[in-house]
Predict the 3D structure of the following.
Amino acid sequence: MDCVFCQIIKGKIPAQLVYEDDTSVAFLDINPTTPGHTLVMPKAHHANFEEIDEAGLAAVMRAVKKVGQSLKDNLGVAGYNVYENNDPIAGQVIPHIHFHVIPRYPGDGLELWPQGKYESGEAEKILNKIKIN
Ligand code: AMP
Ligand code: ZN
């Protein structure tokens, strides 16, 4: 059974196409966070960052850049956010990797995530675990 984004890519269900090339596609999110909220993704089905190869990722990021530029040029916005929810714990609902490109308008109400503080020594412990040598 195809995922919903594969069905859109195959033309089986409709979408409002913003951009398409050989390997990537972008269409309007059906439930926009702000007007112009666009989803950019590879045409090939890969669930997440771990599944897509570097060439595929580079190609989709080129498409993200083009879409972001179109939002700036044609909606008159001064900036946009790029989000990717990687896996269900991070809020990924559709397991076909996609980048949310969300144009930002003054007073649009989109809040970024909360931030805290490390306890003494905690940052060093985390760093020792995740540092890539
Ligand atoms: P995520 O939570 O990162 O997996 O995001 C999935 C996004 O896909 C949500 O923002 C939905 O609003 C959007 N979405 C779901 N179905 C469709 C559809 N048929 N066309 C366009 N966007 C969709
Ligand atoms: Zn898919």
In short: The first strand starts at residue 17 and ends at 20. The CA atoms of residues 52 and 93 lie 17 Å apart.
